[in-house]
Design goal:
- The protein has 215 residues and is mainly alpha-helical.
- The chain has a single domain, classed as Orthogonal Bundle (MetI-like fold).
- 80% of the residues lie in helices and 0% in strands.
- The longest helix has 33 residues, at 8-40.
- The radius of gyration is 20 Å and the shape is flat.
- The chain starts with a helix and ends with a helix.
Length: 215
């Protein structure tokens, strides 16, 4: 336990970087996933085809393979930027496919009569999405989105495998290499991840109850 107590700052900094990595990935995935969901339900056939192919392709590639492709492949074509943002980009593109399907499931839960009512009022497709469909869809998928955020948080540890050693798992590996106490160091890291997921779950529950009252 001396390894953990004497390196609390290391675990704290690693946890902070993991939160930044997961949060940035989730925001990027959310924006891209929302656009993909709009494409998938669009009346424009090419957009629907693009959305379907994107989701099918990205969900078929292991995340670690995609991370490796971005980190070691992009410099080969002249695109060089920090490892942190390379990882965020790769993971954001990957998780956008899953975000899209979560949003699309929420859209399917919106009664079709409300969509028809919007059309009867003369609303455009974009207005129906913005004013009628998406506000209700997002309320119904709070828990699935929380589960997705937990998955993003836990899988952010894969960034350590491609050189993002500042995050929690990367820092834990460095400590283990120095002290050779994997049970203690990785046990402490596991507790940090458990704490993160519990916070996400509690916040999602509070948000769901809050929106239920506002309906």
């Amino acid at each position: 336990m001396d390894v953990v107590t004497s390196h609390l700052g290391v675990f704290g900094n690693g946890l902070l970087v993991s939160v930044e990595l997961s949060g940035s990935t989730f925001v990027l995935a959310g924006l891209l996933g929302l656009l993909l969901a709009c494409c998938r339900i669009s009346p424009v056939v090419p957009l629907r085809v693009f959305g379907r192919l994107y989701v099918a392709a990205l969900r078929s590639v292991p995340l670690l393979v995609l991370l490796t492709l971005f980190v070691f492949g992009l410099p080969e074509i002249g695109l060089v930027y920090s490892l942190f943002w390379t990882a965020v980009t790769a993971m954001g593109l990957y998780w956008a496919a899953f975000f899209c399907e979560v949003i699309r499931s929420g859209v399917r839960a919106v009664p079709r009569g409300q969509i028809e009512a919007g059309r009867a009022l003369g609303l455009t497709f974009g207005q129906i999405l913005r004013l009628v469909v998406l506000p209700q869809a997002l309320r119904t998928v709070i828990q699935p989105l929380a589960s997705l955020l937990i998955a993003v948080t836990l899988n952010s540890s894969l960034a350590a495998a491609v050189g993002v050693t500042q995050e929690l798992t990367g820092q834990t590996e460095l400590l283990d290499q120095q002290y050779a106490q994997p049970l203690v160091t990785f046990g402490a890291a596991a507790l940090c991840y458990v704490a993160l997921t519990l916070v996400i779950g509690q916040f999602a529950g509070w948000l769901e109850r809050r929106l239920a009252v506002l309906r």
